[in-house]
Protein backbone atom coordinates (compact mmCIF):
# COMPACT_ATOMS: atom_id res chain seq x y z
CA UNK A 1 0.00 0.00 0.00
CA UNK A 2 1.12 3.57 -0.63
CA UNK A 3 -0.02 5.80 2.22
CA UNK A 4 -0.84 9.47 1.90
CA UNK A 5 -1.77 12.02 4.55
CA UNK A 6 -2.79 15.69 4.32
CA UNK A 7 -0.11 18.27 5.12
CA UNK A 8 -0.70 22.00 5.64
CA UNK A 9 1.88 24.11 3.85
CA UNK A 10 2.40 27.79 3.17
CA UNK A 11 3.18 28.96 -0.37
CA UNK A 12 6.79 30.26 -0.35
CA UNK A 13 5.83 32.97 -2.87
CA UNK A 14 2.50 34.42 -1.66
CA UNK A 15 2.14 32.76 1.76
CA UNK A 16 -1.31 31.39 0.91
CA UNK A 17 -2.16 28.16 2.74
CA UNK A 18 -1.74 25.05 0.61
CA UNK A 19 -2.96 21.60 1.58
CA UNK A 20 -1.41 18.65 -0.16
CA UNK A 21 -1.48 14.90 0.22
CA UNK A 22 2.01 13.91 1.30
CA UNK A 23 3.20 10.36 0.96
CA UNK A 24 4.32 8.40 4.02
CA UNK A 25 5.25 5.24 2.19
CA UNK A 26 5.64 4.28 -1.46
CA UNK A 27 5.01 0.78 -2.71
CA UNK A 28 6.57 0.78 -6.16
CA UNK A 29 5.37 -2.73 -6.95
CA UNK A 30 1.76 -1.54 -6.74
CA UNK A 31 2.32 2.06 -7.79
CA UNK A 32 4.98 2.03 -10.52
CA UNK A 33 3.75 5.51 -11.50
CA UNK A 34 5.16 6.91 -8.23
CA UNK A 35 8.57 5.45 -9.05
CA UNK A 36 8.35 7.08 -12.48
CA UNK A 37 7.46 10.39 -10.83
CA UNK A 38 10.56 10.21 -8.61
CA UNK A 39 12.76 9.43 -11.62
CA UNK A 40 11.15 12.32 -13.54
CA UNK A 41 11.74 14.82 -10.69
CA UNK A 42 8.06 15.64 -10.30
CA UNK A 43 6.96 13.58 -7.31
CA UNK A 44 5.34 15.79 -4.64
CA UNK A 45 5.48 18.89 -6.82
CA UNK A 46 2.75 21.29 -5.76
CA UNK A 47 1.23 24.32 -7.46
CA UNK A 48 -0.19 27.13 -5.35
CA UNK A 49 -3.77 27.77 -6.50
CA UNK A 50 -3.55 31.43 -5.55
CA UNK A 51 -0.40 32.51 -7.38
CA UNK A 52 0.48 29.42 -9.50
CA UNK A 53 3.96 29.22 -7.99
CA UNK A 54 5.18 25.63 -8.01
CA UNK A 55 7.31 24.15 -5.29
CA UNK A 56 8.16 20.73 -3.98
CA UNK A 57 7.66 19.00 -0.68
CA UNK A 58 10.85 17.35 0.58
CA UNK A 59 10.82 13.54 0.81
CA UNK A 60 9.96 11.84 4.09
CA UNK A 61 8.79 8.34 3.28
CA UNK A 62 9.71 4.69 3.11
CA UNK A 63 10.13 3.31 -0.37
CA UNK A 64 9.58 -0.37 -1.09
CA UNK A 65 10.20 -2.14 -4.40
CA UNK A 66 10.24 -5.89 -3.85
CA UNK A 67 10.56 -6.61 -7.57
CA UNK A 68 13.75 -4.56 -7.84
CA UNK A 69 14.98 -5.40 -4.33
CA UNK A 70 15.01 -1.91 -2.86
CA UNK A 71 13.95 -0.50 0.52
CA UNK A 72 14.83 3.13 1.10
CA UNK A 73 14.21 5.49 3.99
CA UNK A 74 13.97 8.67 1.89
CA UNK A 75 14.37 11.71 4.14
CA UNK A 76 14.52 15.49 3.83
CA UNK A 77 17.88 16.93 2.79
CA UNK A 78 18.12 18.90 6.05
CA UNK A 79 18.24 15.65 8.05
CA UNK A 80 21.57 14.60 6.55
CA UNK A 81 23.52 16.04 9.47
CA UNK A 82 21.66 13.56 11.72
CA UNK A 83 22.42 10.62 9.45
CA UNK A 84 23.55 8.28 12.23
CA UNK A 85 20.29 8.72 14.15
CA UNK A 86 18.27 8.36 10.94
CA UNK A 87 20.15 5.16 10.13
CA UNK A 88 19.31 3.79 13.58
CA UNK A 89 15.63 4.65 13.15
CA UNK A 90 15.58 3.08 9.70
CA UNK A 91 17.22 -0.06 11.06
CA UNK A 92 14.57 -0.36 13.79
CA UNK A 93 11.77 0.13 11.29
CA UNK A 94 13.22 -2.25 8.72
CA UNK A 95 13.89 -4.89 11.36
CA UNK A 96 10.28 -4.75 12.56
CA UNK A 97 8.92 -4.85 8.99
CA UNK A 98 11.29 -7.23 7.16
CA UNK A 99 14.11 -8.15 9.52
CA UNK A 100 14.65 -10.15 12.71
CA UNK A 101 11.52 -8.67 14.30
CA UNK A 102 9.21 -9.63 11.44
CA UNK A 103 7.27 -12.84 10.64
CA UNK A 104 9.27 -15.38 8.64
CA UNK A 105 7.40 -14.71 5.39
CA UNK A 106 8.28 -11.01 5.67
CA UNK A 107 11.88 -11.88 6.54
CA UNK A 108 12.11 -13.85 3.30
CA UNK A 109 11.05 -10.74 1.41
CA UNK A 110 13.53 -8.71 3.46
CA UNK A 111 16.43 -10.96 2.47
CA UNK A 112 15.99 -9.77 -1.11
CA UNK A 113 15.98 -6.07 -0.23
CA UNK A 114 18.94 -3.71 -0.32
CA UNK A 115 18.38 -1.20 2.48
CA UNK A 116 19.41 2.42 2.09
CA UNK A 117 18.91 5.83 3.69
CA UNK A 118 18.88 8.93 1.46
CA UNK A 119 18.53 12.68 2.05
CA UNK A 120 16.83 14.96 -0.47
CA UNK A 121 15.24 14.25 -3.86
CA UNK A 122 18.45 13.93 -5.93
CA UNK A 123 19.71 11.18 -3.59
CA UNK A 124 16.64 8.95 -3.71
CA UNK A 125 16.31 9.46 -7.46
CA UNK A 126 19.98 8.48 -7.82
CA UNK A 127 19.42 5.18 -5.98
CA UNK A 128 16.51 4.31 -8.31
CA UNK A 129 18.54 5.25 -11.38
CA UNK A 130 21.50 3.13 -10.23
CA UNK A 131 19.19 0.13 -9.85
CA UNK A 132 17.56 0.87 -13.21
CA UNK A 133 20.94 0.55 -14.94
CA UNK A 134 22.10 -2.47 -12.95
CA UNK A 135 24.93 -0.55 -11.28
CA UNK A 136 26.44 -0.84 -7.80
CA UNK A 137 25.79 2.24 -5.68
CA UNK A 138 29.00 1.72 -3.71
CA UNK A 139 31.04 1.97 -6.91
CA UNK A 140 29.14 5.12 -7.90
CA UNK A 141 30.22 6.69 -4.58
CA UNK A 142 33.81 5.57 -5.21
CA UNK A 143 33.66 7.24 -8.63
CA UNK A 144 32.62 10.48 -6.93
CA UNK A 145 35.61 10.28 -4.59
CA UNK A 146 37.86 9.72 -7.58
CA UNK A 147 36.29 12.73 -9.34
CA UNK A 148 36.86 14.90 -6.24
CA UNK A 149 40.53 14.00 -6.26
CA UNK A 150 40.92 14.43 -10.01
CA UNK A 151 39.32 17.74 -10.92
CA UNK A 152 41.02 21.06 -10.29
CA UNK A 153 38.15 23.07 -8.94
CA UNK A 154 35.42 21.41 -6.93
CA UNK A 155 32.22 23.26 -6.12
CA UNK A 156 31.69 21.02 -3.08
CA UNK A 157 30.26 23.03 -0.21
CA UNK A 158 27.50 22.80 2.35
CA UNK A 159 24.29 22.08 0.45
CA UNK A 160 26.11 21.27 -2.80
CA UNK A 161 26.53 17.65 -3.82
CA UNK A 162 27.64 15.45 -6.68
CA UNK A 163 25.03 13.06 -8.04
CA UNK A 164 24.88 10.47 -10.78
CA UNK A 165 22.00 11.75 -12.92
CA UNK A 166 22.01 9.82 -16.19
CA UNK A 167 23.89 7.46 -18.45
CA UNK A 168 25.77 9.06 -21.34
CA UNK A 169 25.08 6.60 -24.14
CA UNK A 170 26.72 8.73 -26.84
CA UNK A 171 30.05 8.73 -25.02
CA UNK A 172 29.82 5.42 -23.14
CA UNK A 173 29.90 7.18 -19.83
CA UNK A 174 27.93 8.36 -16.85
CA UNK A 175 26.71 11.88 -16.30
CA UNK A 176 27.28 13.36 -12.87
CA UNK A 177 25.90 16.71 -11.79
CA UNK A 178 26.98 19.19 -9.17
CA UNK A 179 23.72 20.37 -7.77
CA UNK A 180 22.18 22.25 -4.92
CA UNK A 181 20.52 19.64 -2.75
CA UNK A 182 17.51 21.62 -1.55
CA UNK A 183 16.54 23.33 -4.84
CA UNK A 184 17.89 20.50 -7.04
CA UNK A 185 19.36 23.20 -9.32
CA UNK A 186 22.22 21.86 -11.44
CA UNK A 187 25.42 23.88 -11.26
CA UNK A 188 27.58 21.87 -13.62
CA UNK A 189 27.42 18.49 -15.39
CA UNK A 190 30.29 16.23 -16.27
CA UNK A 191 30.50 13.01 -18.25
CA UNK A 192 32.70 10.35 -16.72
CA UNK A 193 33.95 7.48 -18.92
CA UNK A 194 32.47 4.07 -18.17
CA UNK A 195 36.06 2.77 -17.93
CA UNK A 196 36.31 4.34 -14.49
CA UNK A 197 33.39 2.25 -13.25
CA UNK A 198 34.95 -0.86 -14.77
CA UNK A 199 38.40 -0.09 -13.35
CA UNK A 200 36.98 0.12 -9.82
CA UNK A 201 34.85 -2.99 -10.38
CA UNK A 202 37.90 -4.94 -11.57
CA UNK A 203 40.03 -3.95 -8.58
CA UNK A 204 38.03 -4.99 -5.50
CA UNK A 205 41.15 -5.44 -3.34
CA UNK A 206 42.33 -1.89 -4.00
CA UNK A 207 38.96 -0.44 -3.03
CA UNK A 208 38.12 -2.85 -0.25
CA UNK A 209 38.87 -0.54 2.69
CA UNK A 210 36.74 2.21 1.20
CA UNK A 211 33.92 -0.21 0.42
CA UNK A 212 33.89 -1.32 4.05
CA UNK A 213 33.56 2.29 5.21
CA UNK A 214 30.85 3.14 2.68
CA UNK A 215 28.83 0.05 3.58
CA UNK A 216 29.11 0.68 7.33
CA UNK A 217 25.47 1.73 7.74
CA UNK A 218 22.53 2.27 5.41
CA UNK A 219 23.65 5.76 4.39
CA UNK A 220 25.83 4.77 1.44
CA UNK A 221 27.02 8.20 0.39
CA UNK A 222 30.54 9.59 0.34
CA UNK A 223 29.26 12.79 1.97
CA UNK A 224 29.26 10.99 5.31
CA UNK A 225 33.06 11.16 5.28
CA UNK A 226 32.82 14.95 5.47
CA UNK A 227 30.49 14.98 8.47
CA UNK A 228 31.95 14.31 11.89
CA UNK A 229 33.48 11.14 13.22
CA UNK A 230 30.97 8.85 11.56
CA UNK A 231 30.00 5.41 12.76
CA UNK A 232 32.69 3.39 14.53
CA UNK A 233 33.93 0.46 12.43
CA UNK A 234 32.04 -2.64 13.45
ZN1 LIG B 1 1.24 31.21 -3.82
Structure description:
It is a single chain. The protein is an alpha+beta fold and 234 residues long. It has 2 domains: 3-132, no CATH class; 137-224, no CATH class. The protein has 7 helices and 10 strands. The chain has helices spanning 32-39, 83-98, 104-111, 121-132, 137-150, 194-201, 208-214, and strands at residues 3-10, 17-27, 45-47, 54-56, 61-65, 70-75, 114-119, 160-168, 173-180, 186-193. A hairpin with a 6-residue loop joins strand 1 and strand 2 (17-27). Helix 5 packs across helix 6 (194-201). The protein starts with a strand and ends in a 20-residue tail after the last helix. Bound molecules: zinc ion (ZN). Zinc ion binds at residues 11, 13-14, 16, 48, 50-51, 53. Zinc ion (ZN) binds next to loops.
Structural key phrases:
five-stranded mixed sheet, three-stranded antiparallel sheet, 234 residues, alpha+beta, 10 strands, 7 helices, single chain, binds zinc ion
Topology readout:
Elements: E1 3-10, E2 17-27, H1 32-39, E3 45-47, E4 54-56, E5 61-65, E6 70-75, H2 83-98, H3 104-111, E7 114-119, H4 121-132, H5 137-150, E8 160-168, E9 173-180, E10 186-193, H6 194-201, H7 208-214
Parallel strand pairs: 2-5, 6-7
Antiparallel strand pairs: 1-2, 3-4, 5-6, 8-9, 9-10
The protein binds zinc ion (ZN).
Zinc ion binds next to loops.
**Count of extended strands:** 10
Helix and strand pattern = EEHEEEEHHEHHEEEHH
Report how far the terminal alpha carbons are from each other: 35 Å
Rg from Cα: 18 Å
The hetero molecules present are: zinc ion
Helix content: 25-40%
Amino acid sequence: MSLFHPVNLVCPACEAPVVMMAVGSVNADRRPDLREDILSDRFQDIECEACKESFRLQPQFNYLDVGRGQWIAAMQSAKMQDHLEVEDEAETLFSASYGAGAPSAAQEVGNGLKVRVTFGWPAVREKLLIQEHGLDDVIIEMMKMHILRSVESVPLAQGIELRFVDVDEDNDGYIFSWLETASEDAIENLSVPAELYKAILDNPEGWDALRTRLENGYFVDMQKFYMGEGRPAG
